[in-house]
Amino acid sequence: MSFPDNLRYTKEHEWVKQEKGNVFLVGITEYAQRELGDIVYVEVETIGKSMEAGEVFGTVEAVKTVSDLFLPVSGTITELNPELANSPDLVNSDPYGKGWMIKLTVNDPAQVTKLLDAAAYESLVG
Q: Most exposed: 69, 75, 81, 109, by fewest CB within 10 Å?
């Protein structure tokens, strides 16, 4: 499994990547998508909402289970990846690229630096 060095990670298996300024992409890790299996649907009904770190911002549905998605840092969700509507399997095939889930405008970008780096996340999942 890969854990890119340019991302930050949570213990709940989400990743965060700075896009521009205080706008970040959020998705689930390769580890998480492997544990879930084939992703069939991503639901996010919190677009436009300001939320706190740790709150559930959506769900990801796999063939055998549904799992909550937890916001890694506080901010406002501005966009759901439009490609996931027709191709939720992008989360499986490209979890760190085309399989991103949301764009998030972060209240305090310093919160991101407090998340796990790649080495810490890799040691967490073994």
A: 109
